[in-house]
Amino acid sequence: MHRILVIGNDRNIAKVVGLSARRLGLECQSVTDPRGAATRFIDCRPDLVILDLIMPGKDGIDVMREILATGVAAQIVLVSCPGSTYVRLAEGVARFHQAAKSIILDTNRPRGRRSSRCAKA
Fold this sequence. Notes:
Elements: E1 3-7, H1 11-23, E2 27-31, H2 37-44, E3 48-52, H3 60-69, E4 75-80, H4 84-96, E5 101-106, E6 115-120
Parallel strand pairs: 1-2, 1-3, 3-4, 4-5
Antiparallel strand pairs: 5-6
């Protein structure tokens, strides 16, 4: 069974993603405190990580660095609402760690103009 790990401070989003994942036959766990995200990642060994870039206490870029430094393979989907500064910084971190692919969803654009970009290392 494929595993998803949702890392973000919004419990409602984690709950909706978890319900949707289970309907698709996927196992889903969530972390709402980013300070424990890397430990949960190692314990869970997910196939996919959905990671919020803006969180209190520790931002998603630091969490992504910690996850990539473990050397454990997983696809990471970065989700962000603010402008493209965080998106560009996240892409740079992914390239630095030679992540095969990082998928960035830019939700700051109006509906219908949202984009997802794949940055290859």
